[in-house]
Design a protein that fits this description.
alpha/beta; globular; Rossmann fold; single chain
Length: 128
């Protein structure tokens, strides 16, 4: 089985560090970005299998990144996991309109993330 690529987007270095450690330990290739603009540049060079993004970041939010990603790369079917503590209905509706997007409540449990990725990749290999 080939290694899966994960792109982590967060402006908090400690969050990136913890999640990256758990993901690498679980056998994933991990790239990181400090905001959505940097992430878009990285996606142009290598399409990740999954994108894990914070929602509130300077320069470009996780939601704006997700919208831009889906617009710029319609063939990019990467799962986007948005880390957020926001619960407003209009926000969830706006983000929920994007395809293949899931929400994880912050603070994000690295173990829960690794478990969800394992499930996701198993679903991709054995569609029902």
């Amino acid at each position: 089985m080939e290694k899966r690529n994960i792109l982590l987007i967060d402006d908090e270095p400690h969050v990136i560090s913890v999640l990256k450690h758990f993901l690498i330990k679980s056998g994933y290739d991990v790239d990181t970005a400090s905001n959505g603009l940097v992430a878009l540049q990285k996606v142009e060079k290598q399409m990740p299998d999954v994108i894990v993004s914070d929602i509130q970041m300077p320069r470009m939010s996780g939601l704006a990144f997700s919208q831009q990603f889906r617009s710029n790369f319609p063939e990019g079917d990467a799962l986007i996991i948005i880390m957020t503590s926001r619960t407003e209905r209009d926000f969830r509706d706006q983000a929920g309109a994007l395809e293949n997007v899931e929400f994880f409540e912050k603070p994000l449990s690295p173990k829960k993330l690794v478990l969800r990725l394992k499930e996701y990749f198993e679903e991709m290999e054995c569609p029902a």
